[in-house]
Automatic annotation (TrEMBL):
This is Uncharacterized protein. Residues 379-399 are annotated as: Disordered. InterPro entries: Haem_d1_sf.
Length: 399
């Protein structure tokens, strides 16, 4: 049987380009220039292999069809700087929240909602901050904002927001639930109508009942560490995060501990896997593996967990300008992006500053190709890998 065509989207959000490459050979099938992806909001998987993202410079929500004849399907004005991006499980109703961008403090309270079918959009004011967002389906969609300080899950009827008059009016939530003030990380399970928010004391969850949210028991981390990133695994109804522990001082980042946190929503069973010290953050879901990258002064590696949460470790070539001891892992340094598709065994890892994307076969851990781009991929860029029917849209939150 012929394997499904896999395409890698790689964004250099600093230089302003998005490349579409075949995997593993690296043929460039399309490219956008003058487009600066919001790296924090990331790529959002839509049905039929399509992808949404936000151009943070032009202030547009882009819908891309990398498998179609024209890459840009639509470009819809939205408020920026984009913080988080999500849609409902059908892939029609999208929401974009705003963050602080290149500012020291949050300053924008704008939320944009979009009907991707008609390209109708509206902007409203909510609360200044950096809210997370999910869009729950099951009838008329609900936009659920995850606020901090005070922590709240605030639900708005999508139809009410889309019908808002011009002028960015202030809106109040239809219903809300209290949360701890340190929320960071959002997910939803389309099959059950649950929404999840990562906090210091665990993953808070609520289910939709009509136009309200009903709180349920918090899922503990089962560790003294906590997760700052949360995503749904559409392959087998599970939640994933990376738990970070150790000293709070970012200058001591090489001492941070990292665990892969895997919670099965069917059995309510949690598995923790040690990943090692250093910087580990986002993860990617391949057909049979979950992929992490770990950055450390003693050497970087790709970590592949199989269905039994057994780890295979693959060394990665060093990066010039990588985070160093005595500095922070965020400011003025190169990083890595990791991408995979639930419909493929390929895993892509970028090498920030070098303009490279390394393609690995998750089944063997072997490097199949090293793709060289003509852009440096500063800060590691951002990446998404898709096949046209991989079901990645089962996780309707931007990554």
């Amino acid at each position: 049987m012929t394997a499904a065509l896999a395409l890698l989207l790689v964004s250099d959000h600093v230089e302003g380009s998005i490349h579409v490459l075949t995997v593993p050979d690296g043929t460039e099938t399309d490219r956008l220039t003058g487009r600066h992806l919001s790296e924090h909001a990331g790529f959002l998987a839509l049905p039929d292999g399509r992808v949404a993202c936000v151009d943070d410079r032009r202030g547009e929500l882009l819908v891309l069809d990398p498998f179609g004849d024209e890459l840009v399907e639509s470009a819809i004005p939205v408020a920026v700087p984009a913080e988080h991006l999500a849609c409902d499980p059908s892939g029609r109703w999208a929401a974009v929240t705003t963050g602080l961008g290149e500012n020291g403090e949050p300053w924008s309270d704008l939320l944009t909602v979009v009907d991707l079918t008609t390209e109708d959009a509206a902007r409203v004011r909510t609360r200044v901050g950096e809210p997370g967002v999910t869009v729950l389906g099951n009838g008329d969609p609900l936009v659920v904002l995850r606020h901090r300080e005070p922590g709240t899950l605030a639900a708005h009827r999508f139809a009410d927001l889309l019908a808002a008059p011009p002028g960015c009016p202030a809106v109040t939530p239809h219903t809300h639930l209290p949360l701890p003030d340190d929320g960071h990380g959002d997910a939803q399970d389309p099959s059950s109508g649950h929404v999840f928010a990562a906090t210091g004391d665990g993953v808070h969850r609520a289910r939709r009942e009509g136009d309200t949210l009903v709180p349920e028991q918090t899922i503990p981390w089962d560790s003294p560490a906590r997760g700052w990133y949360l995503r749904l695994d559409p392959r087998r109804r599970a939640l994933w995060s990376t738990l970070r522990g150790g000293p709070a001082d970012p200058l001591r980042w090489p001492e941070w501990s990292n665990q892969a946190w895997h919670h099965d929503l069917e059995t309510n069973r949690t598995t923790l896997t040690e990943l090692g010290p250093g910087l580990v953050f986002r993860l990617a879901l391949a057909q049979h593996h979950t992929a992490f990258t770990r950055i450390h002064p003693d050497g970087d590696e790709l970590i592949l967990l199989d269905a039994a949460d057994t780890a295979r470790r693959v060394p990665l070539p060093a990066m010039d300008g990588a985070p160093r001891r005595g500095g922070t892992p965020w400011e003025g340094v190169q990083r890595r992006a990791v991408a995979a598709s639930p419909g493929s065994d390929w895993v892509a890892v970028t090498r920030g500053g070098h303009g490279e994307a390394h393609i690995f076969d998750a089944r063997t851990g072997s490097e199949a190709a090293r793709l060289k781009l003509d852009t440096p991929l500063r800060h590691g860029g951002h990446a998404m890998l898709r096949t046209q029917t991989d079901g990645a849209e089962g996780d309707p939150v931007g990554r």
